[in-house]
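Troubleshooting log. The previous structure file for this entry was overwritten by mistake, so regenerating from the original sequence record. Sequence copied from the archived sheet and checked twice against the printout by T.R.
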Amino acid sequence: FYHKYGIPWNPHSCRTRRHCVLNHMNLCYITALLRQKQSIYLDEIQHKLQTHRYIHVSIPTLFHVLHNFHYSLKNVSVEAKELNDMEHMLFMNEMVNIMTNLDQLMCIDEAYRNQRTSV
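Regenerated output below.
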């Protein structure tokens, strides 16, 4: 479809969906959020819609709206990885300020479970 129509989906596909709960003002609010912060997560948009516009919208609905606005998720994942690196660096700097001796540090992996620790 991309070579024929210039877009990666079928523009002539049959649409069988519900009417969108977002009105024009809510869509304008979402576009304003995207202009203000280009790498925003879907749950952040959902939270801002709930707190500022008093409307509950599901994550799949927001994903569909962004798909219709021709937004991509590729840039967000790259920036999220960079943000995690920045948070890691800030955390390590904070730990250096707190601890005078590295023997004070104890790390626990809460995700690890074995037969003895599980009840």
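Residues 2-72 form one domain. Archived copy saved in two places this time.
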